[in-house]
Amino acid sequence: TLALCKDSSIVAIMRDKGPPPQRLMKSVSTDFGKTWSTVEDTDIPNPGSAAEVVILKSGNWVLVCNDLDEGRHRLSVWLSSDEGKTWPFRKPLVNGAPGSQVRAHYPSIIQGKDGTIHVSFTNQIPDSAGKGSVKNIAHALFTEAWLMK
User: Fold this and answer.
1) For the chain, which residues score pLDDT lower than 70?
2) Contact indicator for 92, 75 with CB cutoff of 8 Å
3) In terms of C-beta density within 10 A (0-12 exposed, 13-18 middle, 19 or more buried), how is residue 85 classed?
């Protein structure tokens, strides 16, 4: 996922498919994407799954990802007020138990005209009989203020 900074540099945040510990990775371009810095790990755990960033009307960045070393049973939203240098606020949208059938992945995030933040993602939960799982697309909506509490 890409984010445009106020100074016109571009930050690319990407998944890590290498050996543990896996973290979201970051690279920066200061020439409109012609060249990129060496990719480096961030502090954000990620099991090699998709992540997405959106820049809010306030200028803050919101990131949605599986913030775990292993598994996809937790999907969280993170907020940065310094263009991704730090992420002091975070809340889980899905918080399943390790080893459970709960899965949440492939997120997409936007901010509506009214400021509400919308996240859609693939969702998997145990079926009511406990013999399998139900897969669907889930939608979460919240405000920036909720995320900062």
Assistant:
1) none
2) yes
3) exposed
Q: What is the pLDDT of residue 127?
A: 85
pLDDT of residue 5: 98
Q: Kindly report the backbone phi and psi dihedral angles of residue 51, in degrees, each rounded to the nearest multiple of 5, phi listed first.
A: -140, 155
Residue-wise pLDDT tens digits, 93-103:
999 999 888 99
Q: Distance between CA atoms of 60 and 83, rounded to whole angstroms?
A: 7
Token look-up 């949208």 returns: 93
Distance from C-alpha of 124 to C-alpha of 73, rounded to nearest angstrom: 9
Residue 70: predicted pLDDT: 93
Q: How many CA atoms lie within 13 A of 149 on its CB side?
A: 6
For the record, the structure tokens of 71 come out as 């598994």
What is the secondary structure of the chain as a DSSP string?
-EEE-TTS-EEEEE---SSSSPEEEEEEESSTTSS-PPPEEEEEE-SS--EEEEE-TTS-EEEEE--SSS-SSEEEEEEESSTTS---EEEEEEEPPTTSS-EEEEEEEEE-TTS-EEEEEEEEEE-TTSSSEEEEEEEEEE-HHHHT-
pLDDT of residue 124: 92
